[in-house]
Every structure is written in structure tokens, then in C-alpha cells.
Amino acid sequence: MLGGVNDGNSPLQNEWWLPRHPRSARRARKYLRELAEVWRLQAEATDTAVLILSELTANACVHARAPRGRYVRVRCLLFAGRLRVEVADAGSAMPEPRVAGVEDEGGRGLALVTALADEWGAYPRPYGIGKIVWFELKLATTHS
């Protein structure tokens, strides 16, 4: 994991690659918790980020229509009192929030992201195939 010395003007960042597998959401949660400890993020922000990352990673692993052998990339940036997390996959379909019925087992993930993130969105990857889904959280205090 990148702990890093920072001049205060550059974002701290870290990234990892995960296989498109249901267990990858668990790994992503673990990696983000470790990184949050190194970056000294507040517990509440960490819990929120871990929950949102878990949802986005699961979506990338389960729903992205991508060729076999493709990976999911998670990138975390800490800058200007904000945590930004990006999940990139090789699927081209953009995420679309929907209203889940009372009996539906799925369909609530993006509503959760919308409710918890200060900002979120998605865009096609500028180089290569696929998309990047991202979210940002404002931190109560900046990293020390």
C-alpha cells in the first residue's frame, strides 16, 4: 500500500487491480480499510467509502459485460479534503439508477451510492474500453 510523503499540493493516490469475481468486493473493502488507516481517515468516512466501494466493485464484477480475463481497477485519491474512489471495468454500459420494487432482491445499490456520496458519476474510459464509475466524499478534516 502507498503511505507516502506528500508535499501537500499533490493528491495521495493508490490503486489496485482485482479479478472480476464475487470475492473481489471483499478484497476491495479490506484494501480500502488498510489505506484509510495509513491515510488517517475518519472512521465514519471510511465506513461510508467502504460501503460505496463494495457496491461499485460488486456491480463491476457482476454486471459489466466484459470479455473473460478482464480486471477491475480501483483507484483512490486523497486531495483538498476529499476522498475520490474510482472503479474501472471493461463493460461499456453506463450505470443507471432504478427504482427497485418491494420484492426485488437487487436494484438498490445506486440509490445507496446517491444517498451516501457527496458526488458520483460515470464516464467512458478515455483510453481503452469500458468505463469509470467514481464517487467523492468530503472529509471533516484534511489528512495530516
Kindly describe this structure.
The protein is an alpha+beta fold. Helix content is 31%, strand content 27%. It has helices spanning 24-39, 43-62, 109-116; strands spanning 12-19, 71-79, 82-89, 119-124, 131-138. Strands 1-2-3-5-4 form a five-stranded antiparallel beta sheet, with helices on one face. A hairpin with a 2-residue loop joins strand 2 (71-79) and strand 3 (82-89). The radius of gyration is 15 Å and the shape is globular. The relative contact order is 0.20. Residues 1-7 have low confidence and may be disordered.
Short description:
By secondary structure, the protein is an alpha+beta fold.
Furnish the topology, listing elements before pairings.
Elements: E1 12-19, H1 24-39, H2 43-62, E2 71-79, E3 82-89, H3 109-116, E4 119-124, E5 131-138
Antiparallel strand pairs: 1-2, 2-3, 3-5, 4-5
Helix pairs in contact: 1-2, 2-3
List low-confidence stretches.
1-7
- Protein structure class: alpha+beta
Major β-sheet strand ordering: 1-2-3-5-4
Total helices: the number is 3
Q: State the separation between the terminal residues, measured CA to CA.
A: 18 Å
Average residue-wise pLDDT:
85
Number of beta strands? 5
- Silhouette: globular
